[in-house]
Task: structure prediction
Amino acid sequence: MAENQNKFCYFYILFAFISLVNSQGSTPTALPSTGLSTANLSSTLTTSATTPVPATTAEPTTPPDSTTLPPATDLGPCICDLTVGACDVNCCCDEDCTDDDLVTFSLCLENNFLVDEKVCLQQSQLILANTPYTVNKTASGLFCIEFDNYAARNYYLIPDTVNTVERFDELANEYKDYTYEVTSTENTTYADFYKSGDPIYTIYESLAQGKLGLANRLSTATCNDNNPAAYLYDESFECAREITDLATQCETMPTLSASVYYEGFKLVTTPYFFQDIEVGPIIVNLTTVAPTTMVTVNGTLASTSVPVTDAPENETTLYDHPLLTEILVRQPVLCIGLFDVKRECNFTFDEIPAPTYDASTNTCENAIFEVAYYISTNGTNGIYEAEVELVLGNITEDSLPMHQKFSTNFAKYDESDTFQKSGNPGYVVGEPLLAGNEETYIDDEGVERYAVSIGSDRDNWLTVVAPNANGQCEQDGARTPVTFGLDIRTGCNIQLYYGNMSDLCELIQETINNTLLGAYPPTHIGMFGNTDPQTFGDWVPILQSNEQSGTALGADVGICRNMVMGVHLEILYANTGSLANPQPKIIGATYRYSNPVQLEYQCIGAYCQPGAEDVPQSFEVISSVEFIDTSSYPEGVLAAPPKFSAKLPSDFFYPFGMSDSTAVRSGMSVCLLCLLTTWLNL
Result:
């Protein structure tokens, strides 16, 4: 009976303890159903609460539970199982796939890698095997390590989760290679003078600050105006101006107007200008054309962010500061006329017109095609003066997209009659070859001498054919200069007609020759990049190899025979001077003409049909340049081995050689040598 009472007491005490714990903060149980909706219950709880419960900010005492990754373990035995509750195609390790599914699979994706714990190597990779154990060799010729006593080397270390910003920044700074974050721009500091490669600063009439722009193309042929000109660097770029509505954009697109490139702004002669004055906050940076209303591609207007605030009264003369210089227009202004020939426009500085659209001819007249800046410098004093050369022309719908050229040319203000060499003395890779034509002159002593006449345009010294925008040949069009060390192949198409092709074969061949060699092909090439035109012996003649002497013949209708359609220029050069500083020298050049071919008008489709006599076909004319290195390298010379001269001292055979008799002394020496030899042989 007492024992039962004790059990009852224990049960009562345990029940009381559990009740006490539940009443002091155990997890609340579900509320009994009262018939109230969720909204009413929420409203009731909200209105009945009078004291808000403060949010706790205490950090948890223990970290949350997470999956523990075992070390030195392959964590992805079935990487192709990506769909929960479904069988992934060709995933043979997917537990959701049945045996029937596996039969339909053509391959098993989880087998795309091979784990070879034996670490097998090719026999060619095994240089030395110094292990005392037997090295096994597989049937395929691989040597394998049977036992690896440190398997953990084949697994990554398990990283810890990053929970703090400090640790995150520490790891990111240690391992990241690059960032997409925009770097903070610091305040611009201005030097005392320009250095080569620096942008050239400009000041606009609104006192906006900018940089002299030189439009260039980036990833496409379209002009990008955000390219600043580099100080002291002669640059030249050509790009296409995108015009979608010629009638609208002709008069509203600023980049088509010549005045944009020299009016409304001045060049800052030296960056010391910004230290000499205190520029107000209205100054902004611009790398495009002069601040004005811009036109987008679709023809809508888009204003720039240039401020229009008037300058304060105490800065009204800032635009007339002596450290600012205007850009003058070089006379004469040129215009592109018929057949793309440049001629004088007879425009004065104040009469250069803006582009205008002629609706009757659908032509945009007086658009800018070429802009060339000529800037004179004066050392640390910066820019001395600046001029711009302009080339205007007309734009039609058929000529779109139009191409514009922009260039800068620098020279010291006190230099004249300058001549840019292509090397000193050896040629520099990428520089044009010195080439000209042979001529004679009478020297001061009345003796006739030979010399070479070269032009002032170094890009026209030695050239090859270049196609126009449509790939066609132009006899008087632009040509590609031959530059040292750069092999090129270029070509263009000539258009021939079926009706008169065979009647004009000789004329066609003459046209092709003029296209390949140019109107006045050079006869000599300078050996070095600084060859003197008066030293005729330093010029190598351009030879003519396999020149065709036959005449182009017209046979049947639409056929021309014995036609030479290409020429190959081969140039021999050799390095001279020091091996550490080689100076290339041209030692020979020759034109190799291609073998004669037969041009035949192809009758395909509509060609050769009645009424299609005026339909042209294109035939390619090819020109190429190849540089051949013929350098002779020095050979190592070994000196002759030294002669061994065996000499003995005079008293070497003492006391056997003390007799005055030479014969006795010699005989005793011979006997001594014999005895010595016999003793050594014992």
Notes: The chain is about 15% helix and 25% strand. Residues 1-51, 280-315 have pLDDT under 50 and may be disordered. The helical segments are 2-23, 38-48, 99-104, 165-175, 246-252, 273-276, 505-517, 662-681. Residues 442 and 448 are 5 Å apart (CA to CA).
